[in-house]
Design a protein that fits this description.
By secondary structure, the chain is of the alpha+beta class. It is built from twelve helices and eight strands. The chain has a six-stranded mixed beta sheet with strand order 6-7-5-4-2-8. Strands 1-3 form a two-stranded antiparallel sheet. The longest helix has about 70 residues.
């Protein structure tokens, strides 16, 4: 409740102004009262102080609206406007102060000249200049804060647009490969497999359309979604595709960006399975270590070409995944690609975030699953 009230106070500009305005003139009255006690002023002088504080509260109110008009003016116009406003307001305030002094303290006092009636206007001008400095200081701070909020919002929108672009760039890439595979099945008169591939493709595309690129899912959900994709690829490659999972149970409840692994698997299938008659192996690993979720996709394909630069990326999937992680996590993540002798190993380390509902598993255990028939493993 207190935090909510503070937020309302900071965001409501009218409430902020009137609260500070009243507090400032109240502080002026208190300091003047203690000053009167120090200099042993008569008790009636307290009425002069009260009248001065109330008059200052009322007479300085129009300064806010004048300053709002001066805010976007050139510096010279603003400075001259502030000085003129403070001096005119100080003259009016001195009339109230001097007349109050005559009424409550020295009824016999008479102003012999107009100058005496405005006596002390210079010191009051200094007081109002302090009021003006505080007003413009707070206004400048609020303006800077709004600009920073607008900039952060713009950066967030730009990051979201970039993430969506990277994600949606992958969908046509995957779709073309799958449609080509289905076309091959039809040409080979494997109509049943082609129909199953279309059904699985439909399920996977429906999942991708339902998922927001900004959303994070648990690793368990990510693997379930990946199985929809791999369903079409199993029909395409059959026993040529060997899949292994080495995932610690305690990592299953960690959060990852949705469809993070699919482009990496697609890349491995392209280079380690599709391009070789004997097929190949793809392994997915996951574990948690000291506040990090460490993931890896390993294949036994040709790896990076010999003599290639260390930063070479094999396929659009790796490049887009690296860029996506950079946008989402900044420098607070790791992504590396290296030869695995044989094959390629893609490793990622993300800040460990756990879903609200704990996974029903025993920490520390690892599961190992192979997607090929038992006879093919021997």
């Amino acid at each position: 409740m207190g935090a909510f009230a503070l937020k309302q106070f900071r965001t409501n500009r009218n409430l902020l102004f009137w609260s500070l305005h009243a507090a400032g003139w109240a502080a002026y009255g208190v300091t003047q009262y203690f000053g009167a006690l120090l200099y042993e002023k008569p008790a009636s002088y307290a009425r002069v102080i009260a009248a001065s504080a109330m008059a200052g509260f009322v007479l300085s109110m129009p300064m806010r609206y004048i300053y709002q008009r001066l805010w976007n003016r050139p510096p010279r116009v603003m400075i001259l406007g502030v000085l003129a406003t403070c001096y005119v307001t100080a003259l009016a305030l001195r009339i109230v102060i001097n007349l109050s002094y005559k009424t409550f303290v020295e009824p016999d006092w008479q102003a012999r000249t107009l100058f005496e009636l405005f006596g002390g206007a210079l010191s009051t001008t200094y007081l109002l200049l302090c009021w003006s400095v505080l007003y413009f200081g707070i206004k400048f701070y609020e303006s800077q804060r709004k600009q920073e909020e607008a900039m952060l919002k713009a950066v967030a929108l730009a990051q979201e647009a970039q993430l969506k672009m990277l994600r949606y760039q992958l969908n046509p890439h995957f779709l073309f490969n799958t449609l080509n595979a289905i076309s091959t099945l039809i040409l080979d008169n494997q109509n049943r497999k082609a129909n199953q591939a279309v059904t699985r493709l439909s399920d996977f595309l429906r999942y991708t359309l339902d998922q927001d690129p900004m959303k994070k899912v648990t690793l368990r959900q990510e693997l379930e979604a990946l199985d929809l994709y791999l369903g079409t690829e199993r029909l395409r490659f059959a026993e040529r595709l060997r899949l292994e999972y080495g995932i610690e149970d305690c990592a299953m409840n960690a959060l990852v960006p949705s469809l993070l692994l699919q482009p990496l698997i697609e890349n491995s299938l392209k280079y380690a399975v599709s391009s070789r008659e004997q097929g190949g192996m793809v392994r997915i690993e996951g574990r948690t270590r000291e506040g990090w979720l460490e993931l890896a996709v390993v294949d036994d394909g040709p790896g990076l070409r010999e003599g290639a630069p260390a930063g070479e990326r094999r396929g659009v999937g790796l490049r887009n995944t690296s860029e996506r992680l950079s946008v989402l996590y900044g420098g607070n993540c790791r992504f590396s690609v290296a030869n695995a002798s044989p094959g390629l190993r893609v490793e990622m380390a993300l800040p460990l975030e756990l879903a609200d509902e704990p996974a029903e598993v025993q920490p520390g255990r690892a599961m190992l699953i192979s997607a090929v028939p038992r006879s093919a493993r021997a």
